[in-house]
Amino acid sequence: MIQVAKRFIEFIIFLLLLSFISFIFIKLAPGDPVKQMLQVDEVSVTKEQIEALREELKLHEPIYVQYWYWLKRFFEFDLGHSYITKQPVVSELLSRFPATITLTCTSLIVMILISIPLGTLSALYKNKWVDHICRLFALVGSSIPSFWLGLLFIELFAVQLGILPSMGKGTIQHVILPSLTLGIAMSAVYVRLLRSSLLESLNEDYVKAARARGISEKRIFLFHVFRRSLIPVITIFGMSLGSLISGTVVIEVLFAYPGIGKMVVDAIIRRDYPVIQGYVLFITILIVLINIFVDICCRYLNPEIRLKGVERR
Fold it and tell me: Which residues contact 298 (CB under 8 A, 6 or more apart)?
């Protein structure tokens, strides 16, 4: 209970520091949100109107005062309203989040379908032609930028063949190209990671002891080697899952996919400060929750972690 309370306090302190730092950097960025809201390039606006709106939004106050106003609303679970759409930031995030989750989940499915078979085959057939092909795929896949791979897919499947849409959201076909782009880019990393983890587990003493007792190779691999090899994979997966959700920005912009990544890019262009700040905090909380879930999974897969936790108590 004490450990839980300690971690919760650390999380609150980290969240406050992050919110303050991000708030300052957002405010110091060039551009005027008031002019973006009034669209002074298209409509004739007086200086009095600009100053009135700036005062209404409290943008005339010093940065620390603006942060204090924002912090008070934050503790009331209010992230403010978008300068452009006038909608609550929470509503904006929640309306776009399902699209990003859909893209993330489908990308993970692609990654799992590629990385687990290739990583396993590469470890079981070490230094054979199968291993060389899998390692070549991992090398090429990790070397190609995801946005360039996405452009290749758009050119091939959308422009040349015309069988898949290149932008937007609506049907399952709209998710295929961005999911393949993200999934292939991720799988290259996990093929190498799973291969090295499996090879390390195959050389452990408990595997040799299990073979000496006459346990079948299939049972050893499935119930001992593979399960133990998943621990570092899941740990890295948890760390990359949060970055995947926040890192879909490039792919969402490339494929004009209406997720939170594209939303925050539009907010940056329009100097929509509340949306940017809300996005930073939303992603931070999400990453922390994912790390907690990964920690629980690792404790389940590896009894040694659970025993160490009991000994510390």
Answer: 231, 234, 235, 305
What residue type is assigned to position 269 of the chain?
Answer: I
Backbone dihedral region of 271: left (phi > 0), alpha (psi from -120 to 50 degrees) or beta?
A: left
CA distances from 229 to 153, 219, 294 (A): 33, 15, 15
CB atoms within 10 A of CB 273: 24
> What pTM was estimated for this model as a whole?
0.77
3-state secondary structure of 42: coil
φ and ψ at residue 88, rounded to 5 degrees: -60, 140
Q: What is the 3-state secondary structure (H, E, C) of 244-273?
A: HHHHCHHHHHHCCCCCHHHHHHHHHHCCCH
The C-alpha R_g of the chain, in whole angstroms, comes to: 24
What pLDDT score does 310 carry?
A: 45
- Residue 245, C-beta contacts closer than 8 angstroms, at least 6 positions apart: 100, 101, 104, 283, 286, 287
- For the stretch 8-28, pLDDT in tens is 787 888 888 888 888 888 887
Q: 277, 240, 274, 246: which is closest to 262 by C-alpha?
A: 246
